[in-house]
Amino acid sequence: MAAPPPYSPSLFRRRDCASGASVVAIDNKIEQAMDLVKNHLMYAVREEVEVLKEQIKELLEKNSQLERENSLLKTLASPEQLEKFQSRLPSEVLHPQEQSPGAAPPAQHSGGSAV
Fold first, then answer.
1. How many helices and strands in the chain, by DSSP H and E?
2. Quick one: which H or E segment has residue 2?
3. Cα atoms in the 13 Å half-sphere on the side-chain side of 106
4. Is pLDDT of 99 > 90?
5. Residues 57-82: pLDDT tens digits?
6. What is the DSSP annotation of 39-85?
7. Residues 71, 75, 77, CA angle at the centre, nearest 5°?
8. H/E run at residue 28
C-alpha cells in the first residue's frame, strides 16, 4: 500500500496558470543572463586575442631583427672568435634537438587576463 504524498496535488493544480507564466519569466531571465555572460566573455576573448596578435607581431619583428644581427656578427667575426664563443655556450644551446623528449621549454605568461 502506497503512502499518500505529504502534500495535496490540488495545491499545484490551482497555481498552474500563474506558475507557468512565472517559470517562463524565470527562464527568460536566465537566458538573458546567460546571453550577457556569453557576450562579456566573447568581448574579453576578442580583446585578449588582439593583445596576443600584437605581441606575436612584435616578437616576430624582434626575432627577425636579432637573426639579421646574428648573421651580421657571424660574418664579421673571425673563425677563432666564433670558436671561442661557441666553446663558452652550454651544449643545450648548441644542440637543442638533443634534449630529452620529455623536457619542454619553460612557458612564459604575459600576465594578461581573459576577463
1. 4, 0
2. none
3. 2
4. no
5. 999 999 999 999 999 999 998 989 88
6. HHHHHHHHHHHHHHHHHHHHHHHHHHHHHHHHHHHHHHS-HHHHHHH
7. 115
8. helix 16-76
